[in-house]
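2 proteins. here.
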Amino acid sequence: MKCRYCGHEIPDGMLYCEECGKEVRIVPDYNPLDDMLTAQVKGAISGENDYSEDDIYESVRNTTAMGRSTGAGRYTSAGRGTGTGRNGAPGNTAGRSAAGRNTAGRNTSGRRNTSGGSLPERERRRRQAERKKALRRKRRQRALIILAVLAVAVIAACFAIYQTSYAGIVNKGYKAIESKEYDKSAQYFQKAIAKNGKKAEAYAGLAKVYTKQDDLDKAESVFLNAIDKQPKNTDIYEACVQFYMDTDQKAEISLLLEDAQDNVRETLAGYIVKGPKFSLDDSETFEDVQELSLSAGNGCTIYYTTDETDPTVKSTKYAEPIQIGEGETVVSAIAVNKKGIPSLPVKKTYTVELPIEDAPAVSPSTGQYESATQIEIKVPEGYEAYYTMDKSDPTTASTKYVGPIDMPEGETIFKAILVNAKGRTSGVTTRNYVLELSQGE
């Protein structure tokens, strides 16, 4: 072989030129196992082939073994000194020398053998890393399973506690209502009340059971009995108010809250409706016809009656002042808010007494008469007159005056009164007549 730098002939087995001192460049033979091994490793890493880890390991092992067996025979100097492995060819000193140097790792063949020998180490590390990942994954799975079991146990325990709690028992009661098991539902609510009598949900549920059975009186008594025992419990009051709203008994709300404790009235102020205000004082007697005005706040509507009955939303709606005529008039009114809740009725009695005429004018005046004479009473408009001639005081049951009356013969005590349209009577006018007719009459 000639030196590529100076052209001097280099003996076989020499690794440098004796003339110029340059190292001999040895070109390795092509080995297809290297490419196959490289392809297998890359494919296994990228997942693009079906080679198993054992296949790759076996290929690496075979390649390494082959490198050991071929020795310097794989790396020749211009095709000479091929040798047959570590033993070399018999009598071929150069081959043995090359093999020795190759074994020392000074040529490219030594580096390839070293590189090939590192592949199993990388594979071992990779497989060890995968085993660690798999172990961590199993640990996570076990932890998740344990957490799931604990969660199920906690949920089951909470559910068991809830089932025997106040809320759980009330919930069972409402479910029984949905299935129309009213007796069973009532038992649940009564059990809940026994467990906690201060909460309103069980009372509302029990009242609903009776409402479903069309027994509103019994449903109402559920709340009223509880309120009697707990007069400051605003929750029960509120549940009762809602019961009245749901069953269209809104008129009962004001009655319920009328004598309630201050804390209850303050909490449920939105359900309290003040009655209408009257413009006239009913403590005085009026001498002429009056106009009564009514008013209410917060946009309430007013309904009233004048026949001494209690007003409802079906009574006369107040729109203009009420005329109060002569006599006694009873006005009763309620205010109804936007929720349809009426106030308690406000009732007042008004008296109007128009001035009455004095005792009626009667003619002729008291005296003695000798000729036939007629007695007359002056009756003002709007009045009637009644009289007697037997010395008794006249009333509306006495003889009604309709025109002049013939004076009786002899002595007569004539008495008369006026009566207005309202039945009020005037004073009594009394006349004493003596009629003695002459013989010619």
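next one coming up
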Amino acid sequence: MASRLNPYLTFAGDARPAMEFYKEVFGGTLVLNSYGDFGQKDTPMADKIMHGMLETPSGFTLMGADNPEGTGKQAENNFSVSLSGDDDAELRGYWEKLSEGGQVSVPLEKQMWGDVFGMCTDRFGVPWMVNISGSEG
């Protein structure tokens, strides 16, 4: 899979209806995974969206999720830019450059869904997510 860059929207509990709306607007295939799908079945977030992805016939990719409880929705930054793919070296290289001089909020490491994932804000204040699928990291 080639690496891709796309927006990742953050919602305060309404990711499901928002992503369903975008599917109505753009068409395509929508996949929604809840927090409950990833081991958080007995939490207030169980039915909220941990990760959603819409891929459209026009080649658009839009991702989105509900903020975990307690983190609040940032009024000025309700988006991130997502980098994802399976080229470990390429994506780690991007991570190193983006996080240098910035702030790492989630270290780039193996996550519960099996991929290597990290979040950072670059030195210009832009939030980034990097997901390396199938990585042994």
